[in-house]
Amino acid sequence: MDDVRYEAPELPDAASSLLAEAGGSGKVFAGGTDVMVQIHAELIDPGVIVDIKNIPGTQGISESDGAYTFGAATAGMVLMDHEGFSSTWPGVIDGVALIGSIQVKGRASVGGNVCNASPAADSTPAMIAAGAICNITGPSGERTAPVEDIVTGPGKTSLADGEFIVSFSMPKRPPHSGDAYLRLTPRTEMDIAVVGAGVNLTLDDDGTCTAARVSLGAVAPTPLLVAEATDALIGTKVDDAALTKMGEACSAACNPISDKRGTKEYRIKTAAVIARRAAEIALERAREN
Amino acid sequence: MAKRSHITLSVNGDEYETLCEPDQSLVDVLRNELELTGTKEGCSTGDCGACSIRLDGDLVCSCLVLAVEAEGKEIETIEGMATSPEELHPLQSKFLEINGLQCGICTPGILIAAKALLEKNPDPTETEIRFWLAGNLCRCTGYDKIIRSVQAAAEEMRKG
Asked: In this complex, is the C-beta atom of A103 within 8 Å of any C-beta atom belonging to chain B?
């Protein structure tokens, strides 16, 4: 641990340059709830810690014509306490609310949760289901990518050296839309998902599902966007038959490991149950607006 | 050794100047550089809540905050909770009265967390208190009296 530097640039280009120059030894720092633990456990030994919170756009929530954008470093509690955002994206809030304690959520961000790239991250499947887009900046300029394209494996992302997520753009919400995220854990609080499921759907005036996205966490090396589960819902009234088919598609998409929290078989079986329950909550919410 | 940074921290309204390592945690600087040892360090990984403080009003674990990034922010620790030794905060009084502590290592963090809860929600249910304090572990497992102390303090504070 020699010659570690702390930098908190105000310009995105400066942050990109610092990270690109450092190569693998640069570490993006937002809420610090993963990075500080990794430093303490000597899992990482960064040469430069680049705090992105002074960069415009990385913090706070804004809304334009019904579409929300929020900074990748915005603390979870800020999102939860924002009435407009939390009533528009209750499923994203379900995921955020499950990230650690109140203290951890006082700092932890969705950008950090996505980029820490844990297969069991709680906000990532909710953000994938929501269809959120990452606004990324880096040495070769700005680009966008859907959240499902970021995590490539446990602890690994598709971000190039020097790139980081500045903010997330949420799509505009049509009427009769609802989302939900549920996870299965042995305990009710302060635990890591055995299975997580995010479901986002939109109904027409007759209650027929016109759009849907289903995402699973903790059942594969990366969070999954399950196209077959989506197909099972679109065009239906999200009735029992559709939910059963969606659940089967979820189980079929699982590629889990067995660990102390649950066996492979248990995860595959419960993925269908948790996804179904999440879909039922999303449906109820969609009917309410 | 890394180059030490010169920082100015505002803790409970007082300004402190000190040197710290770029990757030194705030709890470490509070305790070992500023000698404000009321804040405890338990797990150092954000699980136990013993190091709970307020950072610009937000309830956070100070083991997960870098001291260098706390510059320019208002830090509140347990040392700032009582108006004077004779005039404790209602939470502190009730914890004493109801024996809301055994060994006491979790107590500063729990008091800080409970104060943040009561500012947000002056009349929390038992369930709300338990969920809010889920990030504060009591190694003596004396949770029942902790919850009752918070309830009693909330009641007293509501009377004004």
From this structure: yes
User: Which domains does chain B possess?
Assistant: 5-80 (3.10.20.30), 90-159 (1.10.150.120)
DSSP codes of every residue in B11-43:
ETTEEEEEEE-TT-BHHHIIIIIS--TTS--SS
Look at residue A189 and tell me whether its pLDDT is greater than 80. Answer: no
Say if CB A118 and CB A220 are below 8 A apart: no
- Report field, pTM of the whole predicted structure over 0.90: yes
Q: What is the pLDDT of residues B113-140, one digit of tens each?
A: 999 999 999 999 999 999 999 999 999 9
In chain A, what residues touch B134 (CB-CB under 8 Å)?
101-102, 189-190
Question: Measured between alpha carbons, how far is B75 from B54 in angstroms, rounded to an integer?
Answer: 6
CA B58 to chain centre: 11
* Residue of A103, A107, A188 best to disrupt the B interface, most CBs of B under 10 A: A103
Q: How far is CA B43 from the centre of its chain?
A: 15
Give, as one character, the DSSP assignment of residue A151: E
Tell me the one-letter amino acid at A264.
Answer: K
Q: Is the distance from CB of A72 to CB of A159 less than 8 angstroms? A: no
Helices (H), A9-82: 12-22, 35-40, 76-80
pLDDT tens string A209-229: 999 999 999 999 999 999 999
Q: Is the dihedral of CA B33, B40, A34, B69 positive or negative?
A: negative
Task: Looking at the complex, report in whole angstroms how far the Cα of residue B95 sits from the nearest Cα belonging to chain A.
Answer: 21
Residues of B in contact with A49 (CB under 8 A): 22-23, 66
Q: Which domains does chain A have, with CATH numbers?
A: 5-51 (3.30.43), 61-169 (3.30.465.10), 177-288 (3.30.390.50)
